[in-house]
Every structure is written in structure tokens, then in C-alpha cells.
Design a protein that fits this description.
43% of the residues lie in helices and 15% in strands. It is an alpha/beta fold and 345 residues long. It binds guanosine-5'-diphosphate.
């Protein structure tokens, strides 16, 4: 904490998501007062929509609002009066963004623009973080990618994030604000959504192990990703706002693994052979399967933030499998069997 006596105040958009929940935990552990923007509908379906932050609800303040509504953001920032703003919320599932490009673009670009405008108007002394993504590199011209690699997005999601990145940069440069972007590569955890391939794999491993199913259909097993742990990446995000100057930064593990390797490790950990269960089927192949390798260069994060990613992929996968095994166990013991089981499909 700073030398001032009052605790720092942080405002998070996307607090109910994987990253928001880990970031809220981190900030609480550092003595922050944490405020989160939450859609009104989330309050009507708390058990489902707030399951990642259920254990934090008595220690954080949730403010209803929506990124599309400038007045609601204005009221939320005014109420929370933050020292630090973490803008994480976005429509973020790449596959959906092909199907619903217009809503992805509208929500992500206008939402970020609204946030920046309110920030500049109400709390220009605060620090602002924008959640960029490796999808902004899309089909990269160099391997590995760093902060100087040209953006070449290949999805509506990637395009909307490039726009958000440039909006953030312009607010920094034109108005002298402490606003910066992290360019985060895929980051996973037991809190990852089930539509992402890592969680799809670990949740299926758990159900196969418990004898509930005997097949896992995936797309391209040779796709490679630079996967890291979301909890660890949120430390880098926080560090970005503690520096003397705002600087955009690539946050990554610097290593890639294939979907096949991920499967092998996950199934082996459960005492199974992935080849007995995994089937590569056309319907899960992506329109974006260009064969280009997205892998980050962590040098700037290491030198500038003093942040180093040192978690072996096995540790991440084992944690996810353990969690999903416990979830299946809970499901089988629970009266809410159907409800939870549906979430895991
Ligand atoms: P993304 O990097 O944001 O697209 O994260 P995903 O976890 O959705 O996908 C990671 C990689 O896994 C991509 O290259 C996908 O093409 C590949 N993949 C292979 N099979 C599947 C699948 O069944 N589901 C998903 N989501 N991805 C798959």
C-alpha cells in the first residue's frame, strides 16, 4: 500500500469473470477496497452468474451498470471514486465473435470508449488498465510477438481489442492520463469458461474418469497456444499500474503447447490414455486455423515489471483436473445434480 492512510480503491469491470475474480482476490489481499461493475441481470441470477466471486461477496461492493450505458458508468465511477480502474469486461469468446460480430464490436469498442471518457472526466488522476489480448496479433508477422509487433487481428474480437488498445493509447497521449494495456496471451484456470478448449478438456477428463461419458470431441489437436495461469497473470496486471510510467506490456508464458499435449497431460494425470477417448472432428475446427503461431516474448514484462512466469504447464493442468474431479464428485452427491451438470457440458 501507499504511505497514505486510506486504503486504495479499485474499480473492476468484468469482476464476475475468471480474471476479475482473481484480480479482486489479489487486490483484497493487498488491502484495497474493491468495487465491481455488474449487469443488473446478474443480481437476479446470483448463484449462476456470480459463482466465481461468491466467496468474496461480503468483502467487495458491486455496482449495477452496463458498459453500453454511459450514465450508469458515470454513476458507478462517481460512487466508487477509484484510484485504479481495471477494464476487463468484454465479449471474449473468439468463436462466438465470428457468429455475432456486430454485438462483439459494439459492446467492446463502445464499452471501452465509454469507460475512458468517464475516467477522463471524473477521475483523471486515477490509473487505467485495458485488457488487450494476443488475438490482436492474429496472424503475426513475427514469432515470438512483442510490444513492437504489428497487429493483424483475424476476428471481430481481435479487431475490437485493437480499437480498444488504440483508444487507450490516445487517451494516454492526448490527455496525459496513466492509461495502459496488457497484451495477455491465453490464460486458463479452474475458473475458465467451459467453452474454451482447456476447460472443455479437463471437465471431460473428470466426467470420463467418473464413468459418466466416454468420448471427447475436439477440433484441431495440433493447434498451439501460449497458455499460462490466470491467477499469475493478474499479478502482472496489477504491477502494470504500480509503475512510475504507463507502458503497454505483453504478458505470456513464452512457451507453446498443442491441444494434443494438453490432452495427454490431463488424461495421464487421471490415469487415462487420451487416445482412447479423444476424437478430432470437423465441426470443432476453427475458421481461423491459419497455422500461425501465437507466442509471446516476455522480456519486457520481466525487465520492466520484474514479473516472471515460471509455472510448468503440468501444474496448471493438474489444478484444473483436480478441480473438475471435485466438481463431478459434488454433482453426484448433490441434489442440484442436473443444474451443475448442465454447466459442465
Ligand atoms: P482462443 O485462443 O481464445 O481461441 O481459445 P480456445 O480455448 O477457444 O481455443 C484454443 C485453441 O484450441 C484454438 O486454436 C482452437 O482452434 C483449438 N481447439 C481445438 N479443438 C477445440 C475445441 O473443441 N474447442 C475450442 N474452444 N477450441 C479448440
Amino acid at each position: 500500500m501507499t504511505s497514505t492512510s486510506h486504503p486504495k480503491r479499485a474499480f473492476i469491470t468484468g469482476i464476475t469473470g475468471q480474471d476479475g475474480s482473481y484480480l479482486a482476490e489479489l487486490l483484497l489481499s493487498k488491502g484495497y477496497m474493491v468495487f465491481g461493475l455488474v449487469r443488473r441481470v446478474a443480481f437476479e441470477d446470483e448463484a449462476h452468474r456470480m459463482h466465481r466471486i461468491a466467496h468474496l461477496l461480503d468483502r467487495i461492493e458491486l455496482i449495477p451498470g452496463s458498459l453500453e450505458s454511459f450514465p450508469s458508468l458515470y454513476a458507478a465511477i462517481k460512487k466508487s471514486s477509484p484510484d485504479e480502474i481495471y477494464h476487463l469486461a468484454a465479449q471474449s469468446y473468439v468463436n462466438t465473435s465470428f457468429e455475432d460480430e456486430f454485438s462483439t464490436m459494439n459492446a467492446n469498442i463502445n464499452g471501452t470508449h465509454n469507460m475512458l471518457a468517464v475516467y477522463r472526466d471524473l477521475v483523471p488522476q486515477a490509473r487505467f488498465y485495458f485488457a488487450g489480448t494476443s488475438e490482436m496479433f492474429g496472424r503475426p508477422s513475427q514469432i515470438p510477438q512483442n510490444e513492437n509487433t504489428p497487429f493483424a487481428p483475424r476476428s471481430a474480437y481481435g479487431i475490437s481489442k485493437v480499437a480498444g488498445f488504440h483508444l487507450t493509447k490516445n487517451y494516454r497521449e492526448n490527455y496525459g492520463l496513466f492509461a495502459c494495456s496488457g497484451i495477455l496471451y491465453n490464460h486458463e484456470s479452474p475458473r475458465r469458461g467451459f467453452e474454451f478448449v482447456t476447460r472443455k478438456i479437463t471437465s471431460h477428463v473428470a466426467k470420463i474418469k467418473k464413468g459418466l461419458i466416454n468420448r471427447l470431441e475436439l477440433g484441431n489437436l495440433d493447434s498451439r497456444r501460449d497458455w499460462g495461469h490466470a491467477r499469475k497473470y493478474m499479478e502482472a496486471v496489477w504491477l502494470m499500474l504500480q509503475q512510475p510510467k504507463p507502458l503497454d506490456c505483453v504478458i505470456c508464458s513464452g512457451k507453446t503447447h498443442s491441444v494434443r499435449e494438453f490432452c495427454k497431460i490431463a488424461f495421464e494425470y487421471a490415469g487415462l490414455n487420451y487416445q482412447d477417448y479423444v476424437h478430432s472432428v470437423q465441426k470443432f475446427y476453427r475458421a481461423d486455423s491459419t497455422g500461425q503461431t501465437l507466442v509471446g516474448d516476455p522480456a519486457q514484462a520481466e525487465n520492466y515489471l520484474g514479473w516472471r512466469y515460471d509455472l510448468p504447464i503440468e501444474r496448471l493442468i493438474h489444478e484444473m483436473v483436480d478441480h473438475d474431479l471435485s466438481l463431478v464428485f459434488t454433482v453426484r452427491q448433490s441434489t442440484k445434480t442436473e443444474q451443475i451438470f448442465n454447466v459442465m457440458t
